Amino acid sequence: MHNLIEILTEPDNIAILIMLVSTITCTWVAFREAIINDKLIKEGKKEKIYERMTQ
């Protein structure tokens, strides 16, 4: 684990680490929104999806 942290904190790899964290965060947000939208569709509130997107 120490070696991994040492490699990731080298100046050349900081940009890669930032891109990795950003990608994971954006993917998590997208899946979270998809689950919420699926619940709204199942509840018959399909029109609420657009309202949530435009707030």
Summary, kept brief:
With about 55 residues, the chain is mainly α. The protein contains 3 helices and no strands.
The share of residues in extended strands comes to under 5%
Number of domains: 1
Q: Helix count, per DSSP?
A: 3
**What is the arithmetic mean of pLDDT?**
92
Low-confidence stretches: none
**What is the terminal-to-terminal distance?**
43 Å
Overall number of strands: 0
Helical fraction: over 70%
The dominant shape is: elongated
Order of helices and strands: HHH
Main β sheet profile: none
**Cα gyration radius (Å):** 18 Å
Q: What structural class is derived from the secondary structure elements?
A: mainly alpha
List keywords for this structure.
single chain, mainly alpha
Q: Could you explain how this protein is built, in words?
A:
There is one protein chain. With 55 residues, the protein is mainly α. The protein has one domain. It contains three helices and no strands. The chain is elongated and about 50 Å long. The termini are far apart.
